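user: Kindly work through both lines:
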Amino acid sequence: MGLLSDLKALGLGQFEDAKIIEDPAKKKAEEVVVVKTPEELEKEAVFVRNIKCPVCDNDVSLLAMRPGKAKLEGTDSDLRPKYEKMDPIKYDAIACNSCGFAALTKYFGHLASRQVRDIKEQISPSFKGFEFKGELYSYDDAILRYKLALASEIVKKAKNSEKAYTALKLAWVFRGKRESLSKDEAKKEENKQEIITLFSAELEALKIAYDGFTIAISKESEPIAGMDSLTVQYLLADLARRLKKYDEASRLCAGVLTNQSVQPRLKERAYDLKVMIQEEVKKQKEAAAANEEAAKKNAGQASAKG
């Protein structure tokens, strides 16, 4: 008989065996945890935003990422931020579907009258528009918008730093798509050729970024695409490494490490980069030695047969 059994006489028999004390920890453990998919989380993180196009004055409807919704989990050596479950970089290129003008969010603003005229004359007349009906931007949607941004930058004669930064972020989008395909174990072999193609496209975009920032750091004043000169120098060192320009990468990296005004965080990154460069140079030399040895062996075998 329970402590509250007498309540039955009052018509409240449902409390006869009721549990009086609840352990919050145990109750929480018993609760059903709803695990949301990355796609569901991304849908919760984006919203529709409307802004006015500086070229044609039409409203541009776009998807944008809500601040604080994406959780940072790390940063690549070329400063690409990596987030859990989603990739906000897909949402940083804005494109007007009316006139074809596109730019990164930070550059999608006031244009000089000459730039507006050039966009209207060189892009708008032949621009066919694009169709988008999804709830999220795919990597392909993002790639198209970034390419449109580069085309607009060519026409409006943007600074080399702007074009370099857009190319850098396009490379990050290619990398993001490549990584997403690589994670799909079930279709890894099927995606193999596309992964190779994406890596090649990434390197092409990184080369443009490298060339653009190289000119910008000598011709433009700080900030360069929002970065100070030492950060750009570090970035160039890593881009040189990725492009296998190891002598240049080592020189640029050493310049950051020996600079007296370098911030501790950037100095730590530069030291890590120095180690990466040394390891890759070592592997390159070992591979070259192995190839040379194999070539000698094959030549010897051919000579013996002859």
Summary: The chain has nine helices and six strands. The first strand starts at residue 46 and ends at 52.
